Amino acid sequence: MVVGGVPPPTAPIRSRSSQACIRTPSDTSYGAMETTTIPPSAPPAARARPLAAVRRFAGRWGLIAALAALPVYYGIHDLTVGYQAGVVAGHAVIRHDLSNLGFNFAVGLSNGAIWALIAIGYTLVYGIIELINFAHGDVFMIGSFTAVGLYAVFGLTPATGGAWLVVGLLIILIITMLVTGSLNVLIERVAYRPLRNAPKLAPLITAVGFSFILQNVGLLWRGGSPQSVPDLINVQQTVFTIAGVPIQRGYILAFAVMIPLVFALGWFINSTHAGRAMRATAQDPEAARLMGINVNATISLTFLLGGMLAGAAGLVYALYQTNVWFFQGFKAGLIAFTAAVMGGIGNVRGAVLGGLIIGVIQALADSRLGPQWTEAVVFGYLIAIMVLRPRGLLGEETREAG
Known about the structure:
The protein is mainly alpha-helical. The chain has a domain of 223 residues. It has a three-stranded antiparallel β-sheet with strand order 1-2-3, with no helix packed on it. A two-stranded antiparallel sheet has the order 4-5. A two-stranded antiparallel sheet has the order 6-9.
């Protein structure tokens, strides 16, 4: 209200957004406006977050401690308490060295090379379409059955000479990889592509269904019991010894197949036009399609590569284990998927690292604790790694992870 024609003094009107004070002076009849800027209040001091610091410390050093726990413990045990290396004249021979631990590592790394080849197939498919291909383990099983079936076709027996044995196995490797790669592409074309835009549960259930179909194919093919296959390369023969650790032919075979294939895959993904298309599709399928990339063909190529690696793993497994079984794909697939998650899903190097680590953990648990504890120890490690580093050892490479 104006009394006597003179406006009363007004209180400052403060704007929250501009942090300015608007005043109407009382000595003017028109209420001319002027502004006075009020400096913003100083932000409160950042509170220390000790729990976050502890979490960062545990994520960095706790992970190293967790991975080193079993090898360090058993290494100290072998050096101090010793281990039984045999029996002489009715008396146990006790040795105090690290050769037994080295033998565990040799067995574990060679097994891990097989899991790594299978895990790469899981991580490739999940990285590009974010689908857990549960049928992948059974594609690996079909690869083993195919390779064993080709032994007789090429006349390979334990008595086969060295040169023809190597040539025959290389031909079988190529044929097996083509068979399993084509099978994986067929599964993608028939089961997954029609469900590309469906809810994620639909292709997941379809993958489980195809896994059972392939298991039944294996059951009809070779029966329900594990079958021994010829030991073509004398897999347990020692080739040389390093620091008291015997290096057997089976160990060399696993790495002789795994290392070239992993390097070839890395070169293909990083250096070829199709590989760049795969990376673009994994990052953003819609943008890749707008750039002229055939997304469906790229996804089929990814399934082809994953299936081929599973076939190579199937041949190595048959040569290494000298037995095949229709149910072998279930356990191998579970272990390989665990390896992919442990290393960082979508990360090829992480899948290789996870496979090797799980192989070593399995070998240590089998030898020191007993096979009945192996799965519990492996998944205990997986849980610890997921808690300390939720995105895996080397980090995820998916659209969600960036």
